[in-house]
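Standup notes, structure subgroup. Blocker cleared on the 2-OXO-4-methylpentanoic acid input:
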Amino acid sequence: PPNFDRSCGELTVKSSRDGNDANINWDALGFCFTQTDYMYIMKCSSKEKFSDGIITSYGNIDLNPSSGVLNYGQGLFEGLKVYRRKDGGIQLFRPEKNALRMQTGAMRLCMPSPSVEQFVNAVKQVALANKRWVPPHGKGSLYIRPLLFGSGSVLGIGPAPGYTFMIFASPIGNFYKGRESLNLLIEDKLHRACPGGTGGIKSIANYAGVFETVSHAKAKGFSDVLFLDAVYGKYIEEVSSCNIFIVKGDIVSTPATQGTILPGITRESIIKLGRELGYQVQERDIPVEDLTNADEVFCTGTAMVVTPVGSITYQDTRMEYKTGEESVSHKLHTMLTGIQTGVIEDQFEWILPV
Ligand code: COI
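Run returned:
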C-alpha cells in the first residue's frame, strides 16, 4: 500500500562492527528498521522445553516452507526498549512483563515458551551485544523485538512439532515522525478483534488485518484508526497498534482488557502513574459518545510511548482535544520517560540495568 511511510530519513550506517560508534544520524531516527550486529536464537521441539540459546551475527534464517508460522500463523511477537542513561549506562523497562505476556500468548497458541529468566537473559544479551546501537540519552532507544513461532513442519492443521524463539534489535526514534499529535479516524465496519479471539495476545496475526483500513485512513490524511468493539459497534477498543485513554476533569479512563484489547505494559504503567499523580483512573467500557465531551485523548504503547490525540473523526464529525505542555498526557509522558531513561527515580522497581 502506498500510504505507509517506512522511510528512515538520512541514516548513514557503517556496515562493519569496528569501533563503538554506530555512525548513525541519531536525529533522523524514526520507527523503521536499521540492521544491528547481533541477534539471539533458541530452538526446541514440541516435546521439550527451551534450554540453550546463542547470540549470533544478524542475518537471514532458514525457514521450512511447511513451518507452522508460514502456514497457520502460529507466532507471537513482543516489543520493548533499551534506554541510554545520562551516565552512558543502559537499562530495560519491565522486561519480565513482556516475558509473562509471551507465555500467556504461547499457551493460547499451543506453543512452548521461554521461562521469564531465559527471556530476560536473552534480552540482556541482545542489548549488550548491540550496545553501540543504543542511541545517546534523549535521542531514542534500541527497540528489542522478541519472536516466538512454530518453525517445525506441518500440513494437517495443528501445532508445529518445533519452535524458535529469537530476538533482534533496531535503533528507533518516534513512532509518528514529525507529528505532535494524532488525528484518528474511527472505523465502524471492520474490527481488530472479537470476543473469544486473539486480540488480547500479541499474535502476529492481529496486525496485518488492520493494514487495509489504516492505509485508507492515511490516504485521507489521518494518522491512524481507532477500532470499536465487534459486538455492539459502540465501545472504543484500541488503535491499530496501541491502547487509548480519555481524560475528563480528574478522571482518566481506558477500555478494560477483556480479551479483545492488548494488555499493554505502557498501559499498565500509565494507570499506575496516573494514580500516583492523583487522577482517578478507571478501566471500563467507554462508549464512543464519551469522546464528545472528553478534554483529552492519548495513546500508549511501547513504540508509541504516550502520544496525544489532537482530533478524532467519527461519521464525518470531528472532535478536538487539548494537547501541549499543560495536558495530562504531557505530565504522564514526562514521568514515564523520566523513569525509563533514568532521569526520575524509579520507585516501582520497573528498571533493570543491563
Ligand atoms: C509496540 O508498541 O511495541 C508494538 O508492538 C506496536 C508495534 C506494532 C509497533
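Discussed briefly. The pocket of 2-OXO-4-methylpentanoic acid is lined by residues 79, 207, 241, 301-304 (CB under 6 Å).
Next: hand off to the docking folks.
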